[in-house]
Specification:
Two copies of one chain form a homodimer. By secondary structure, chain A is α+β, with helices and mostly antiparallel strands. Helix content of chain A is about 40%, strand content about 25%. The longest helix of chain A is centred in the middle third of the chain and has 27 residues. Chain A binds a DNA duplex through helix 7.
Chain lengths: ~240, ~240
DNA sequence: GGCAGTCATTGATCCAGATCAACGAGTATA
DNA sequence: TATACTCGTTGATCTGGATCAATGACTGCC
C-alpha cells in the first residue's frame, strides 16, 4: 500500500500515459492505445499545493500516476468543501460547468494525465472493457460520495473524524494486524474542509480520540490507529 | 415537464420494460433487448410509501417508468439521510454492501424495473451506446451528489432550502417565464432528511422565503416560485 | 360533513460546533 | 543554530439549528 503515496518523479511524460494504459486498458496494445490517447491526454508534473488545471467548460478525467490530490468545490463567500481525496493509480472525475466551481489540487508532488471527458468517452466507445472499467470506477465514486453525504448531513464531529480515519486507513494505511499506521498527506484544515468542520473542531476531536486510546499522533502527519474495529464502532455505521 | 410526476398506472409489466428500452436503448430492436433484459429485470408496481426492494448484497439499478422516489441511507440511531430524489424516466443506482444501508422508497405510486448491476453490465458490454448512456447517467449522478455535499458541508439552512427549490423547479417544475410552479411529492420531513435539517427548521425557512417574496405556498405540496433568479442568488452558488 | 390522524407551524430553550483569541510546536530559510 | 512563519492546540464565548412543547391546518375516511 505504501506506493499509493509515492511522490518520486515518474521518469517521463510518455511513461505517465503508459501507466494509465497499463492500469485502465490492460487488454489494449500499448502503442495503439497510446496513439489514440496521445492526442487528447495531457501529461503533467504538478508541485504540491498547485492546481491541476483542466478545461473548466466541460467535464474532465484526471489519472493520477503518483501523488495525492483533493477535489475542492467553491461556494460563495470563499467557503470550500473538499468532495474527495484521490491517490496514486486512481482516476478522478472533475465536474465542469456546475452550480459550484471545482478544482483539483495537488497535496504533494503529482504526476497526472488530464483528459476531456467527452473525448475520452469517444475513444472508449471502441473498447467495451475500458468503458465498463470507467463505469465501475464512476459507480464506486458515486457510492463513496453518497456515504460522505450521510456523514455531512447526519453525523457529529467525532463520528465524522472516525469515519475519515477508517477510510484513510483502508486507502493509504499500512496495515498492522487490526492496527494501522497512516501518513496523512493533508493538513488539519483539509480534513476540516472535507468533513464540513473547522480546524479547531478537528483538533479537539483528535484529542478526544487520543484520550479514548483509539488514536496516537506523532508530528503533523503520522497517525497510528491501534483499534480499527473500535473506530468503526464510533463512526456511526449501521 | 408535468409528465415527470405521472403516477397513472402503466398498463402492464412488459410495458415497463418496453419504456426502459425506448428511453435507454433507443438503437436496439425492442424484441431482442427485451429478451435479454427480460431474464434479469423485475418489473413491479409499488404503492406510495412502500420500499422498492432490490437485492441488498450487491449494487442494483432501478428504472422508474412513472412516479417519484427517495433514496434513503440509514446510519446508526435510526438517523436517515436522503441522498437523492428521482422522477419518472430516470435510472437510479442503488448501493448494495456499503458503510450504510440504502433503501429506495416510493413517494407516490411507481412503476419500476429493478436490475442487478453486474448482470445489467454484462448485457451492456455488447452495446457501447448503452454502456456510454449508463456512464453519462452515472457521471451526472456523481456530480449532483457532489453539489449536494457542498450544501450539506458548508451551507446554512436558508441556502440549502433555496438550493433544493431551484433544483426541484428545474426537474419537476412547470416553467412560467422566470417563475415556476412546483407540486412537491415529498413531505417537509423528506425535505429535511434530504438537506440534513429538521422539519421545524424547514418550516421556519419556508416562512423566511415567504416573507422575502421568493416563495408562495398553497396546501402542503403546492409551491410557487415567482423569482427563480432571486432564489439562485440565495442558494450560495459561485 | 364531521372526525381522526397525520403533517405543518410557531414558540421557548438548549447545545454542538463556530468564532475569536492566544499560545505552542513543527518546519523551512539564512 | 537562530529566526521566521505556518500549522496545530487550547481556552472563552457566541450562535444557528436542534430539541422540547403546544397548537393549527390538511387529508382521508366513515
Amino acid at each position: 500500500m505504501s506506493n499509493r503515496l509515492k511522490s518520486a518523479p515518474a521518469v517521463s511524460r510518455t511513461q505517465i500515459l503508459a501507466e494509465f494504459v497499463r492500469d485502465y486498458l490492460p487488454g489494449a496494445r500499448a502503442d495503439v492505445a497510446a496513439g489514440e490517447l496521445g492526442h487528447i491526454a495531457l501529461p503533467m508534473r504538478v508541485a504540491g499545493g498547485r492546481t491541476i488545471t483542466t478545461d473548466r467548460t466541460s467535464n474532465a478525467f484526471v489519472y493520477l500516476a503518483s501523488g495525492a490530490t483533493k477535489l475542492i468545490a467553491k461556494a460563495s463567500n470563499g467557503r470550500e468543501q473538499i468532495v474527495a481525496f484521490h491517490f496514486a493509480g486512481e482516476l478522478v472525475s472533475v465536474p465542469g460547468k456546475s452550480c459550484h466551481s471545482y478544482n483539483l489540487a495537488a497535496l504533494v508532488d503529482c504526476d497526472a494525465l488530464t483528459m476531456p471527458a467527452d473525448e475520452l468517452l469517444a475513444i472508449a466507445r471502441g473498447d467495451p472493457d475500458f468503458l465498463e472499467t470507467l463505469l465501475q470506477n464512476t459507480i464506486g465514486a458515486l457510492h463513496r460520495c453518497r456515504d460522505k453525504a450521510v456523514g455531512l448531513g447526519r453525523k457529529n464531529a467525532q463520528e465524522r473524524l472516525a469515519d475519515f480515519l477508517v477510510g484513510m486507513a483502508m486507502r493509504i494505511g499500512q496495515d498492522q494486524e487490526g492496527a494501522c499506521l497512516i501518513n496523512l498527506p493533508m493538513s488539519r484544515r483539509d480534513v476540516g474542509d472535507s468533513l464540513g468542520l473547522t480546524i479547531e473542531t478537528i483538533s479537539r476531536q483528535f484529542g478526544e480520540l487520543r484520550e479514548l486510546g483509539l488514536v496516537k499522533t506523532a508530528g503533523r502527519s503520522q497517525v497510528f490507529l491501534p483499534d480499527i474495529a473500535g473506530l468503526r464502532n464510533l463512526a456511526g455505521y449501521i
